[in-house]
Specification:
By secondary structure, this protein is of the alpha+beta class. It is built from 22 helices and six strands. The strands form two sheets. A four-stranded mixed beta sheet has the order 2-1-3-4, with helices on both faces. The chain has a two-stranded antiparallel ribbon with strand order 5-6. Strand 3 and strand 4 form a beta hairpin.
Length: 428
């Protein structure tokens, strides 16, 4: 009996020793108590902001947080806190106790994606933020060290900028910290200052800065987006320049006429929220005249962008389809298959009108016949419309061919084809 007890103790000790190799997370204190402890002990705080559905979060926990060198560094320098930001019926008492604090932290520090890593100084001030997974332990640690260095902490860098520091190396560090902190409001100011010092705006790094820093038609990168769209798109993605130019013109010239109390919130990463009350009597001729006066070469594209977005907000799918049909009738040879696929997918998801869905199916065939950038996507959208239009057998066969070509055995497309077989909805 004693021998068996010793074996059990040895096994438990072994498990405990293995667990201690990685990051040790606080398991009893609440947020206010953690901040008080950090201040008393002059310690930094690390928050792992995760969601239960987030696969990269789980991979970071298994592949990075469990490592000896990561645990040694974090346990020495931080009070570590892992916070779940989604809510499930199976959540335990500890997770539920954090619900309110999690919501406040999410709102206050603009957590929009998972995983997000927050770093606070002993006074409870956010000094560094990392968004996204990093599976390289060395790189992850090097990035972490920036959070502890007052020279690279974002509030310090911003103060130095306000006080006139403008050398190129400093601005590059400031911009990186601003991107990590999702400070979309300040980034254009920093990036405009940096780009003005550059002789070649088309380096990969400068194009990435143009991506983050061009948020208005007056920003330094706007002209580059217009004149060098191919170079920009080769780094960011095909169609990015055109979409961004149209969106910025829309934001400043058209949007205030489409909604009252109009407010735009840019959360970064393409997440933009157009807030306000819909204007139900838009004068489209006045809208066109305004765009034509400022950006005559963009009139048609901005009008189409504006009308499709407006009718989507209004849930007027008849008008939405009319705008797209008019575009195709006027310039069938200037088809952009990616843009057309966007329109097609919107109707698939939200319209239940058979005539509109038939139109959308014909549009999806045009995308499939084109030499666009994403033939798999075009085919998937066409498959979805086939199914919604009652062509079940054809849809299942086509979707299965896509799945087979991708070598998938699980995932969204597999789930969709199974729903088709069971006569279930595959749209919102």
């Amino acid at each position: 009996m004693m021998k068996r007890l010793l074996i059990v103790i040895a096994i438990l000790s072994s498990i405990h020793a293995w667990a201690q190799q990685g990051i040790k997370f606080e398991e009893t204190l609440n947020w206010e108590q953690i901040k008080a402890k950090a201040k008393k002990e002059n310690s930094y705080i690390f928050i792992d902001a995760y969601a239960t559905w987030c696969v990269p979060c789980k991979e970071m926990s298994a592949k990075i947080f469990s490592k000896q060198e990561i645990g040694d560094f974090y346990n020495k320098n931080f009070i570590n806190v892992a916070i779940q930001f989604d809510r499930k019926s199976t959540d335990n008492k500890r997770i539920k106790e954090w619900y309110n604090d999690a919501k406040k932290i999410k709102d206050n520090f603009k957590i929009l994606a998972y995983p997000t890593y927050l770093y606070f100084n002993p006074n409870g001030e956010l000094v560094y933020k990392i968004v996204g997974a990093n599976y390289d332990p060395t790189s992850f640690l090097e990035n972490t060290k920036l959070a502890l260095d007052t020279k690279t902490q974002y509030p310090t860098l911003k103060d130095q900028f306000v006080n006139g520091k403008r050398d190129t190396a400093f601005l590059a560090t400031l911009i990186k910290a601003g991107i990590n902190s999702s400070d979309m409001k300040s980034l254009p100011t920093f990036i405009n200052s940096y780009l003005k010092s550059q002789t070649n705006l088309l380096t990969k790094q400068n194009i990435i800065y143009i991506f983050y820093g061009t948020q208005s038609t007056t920003d330094f990168g706007f002209e580059t987006l217009q004149k060098h769209s191919e170079a920009i798109d080769s780094v960011i993605g095909k169609g990015f320049s055109r979409k961004t130019v149209n969106r910025l013109i829309f934001n400043e010239t058209v949007f205030p006429m489409l909604k009252t109390n109009a407010v735009i919130k840019n959360y970064g990463g393409g997440m933009i929220d157009y807030q306000g009350d819909l204007n139900k009597s838009v004068d489209w001729q006045t809208v066109s005249n305004l765009v034509k006066n400022k950006f005559p070469d963009r009139l048609e594209e901005v009008n189409r962008f504006s009308k499709t977005l407006y009718y989507q907000w209004a849930e007027d799918w008849t008008k939405y389809a009319e705008v797209v049909s008019e575009y195709l009738e006027k310039k069938p040879n200037q088809l952009n298959p990616d843009e057309l696929s966007d329109y097609t997918e919107v109707l698939f998801q939200f319209s239940n009108d058979s005539s509109q869905l038939q139109k959308a199916e014909s549009w999806s065939k045009l995308s499939m016949a084109s030499k666009g950038t994403d033939p798999i996507r075009y085919k998937v959208i066409n498959t979805r419309l086939l199914y919604k239009n009652g062509k079940k057998a054809e849809a299942i066969t086509q979707m299965q061919s896509v799945i087979d070509s991708l070598g998938q055995t699980s995932g969204q497309l597999v789930d969709e084809v199974n729903k088709m077989k069971n006569n279930e909805k595959t749209w919102f």
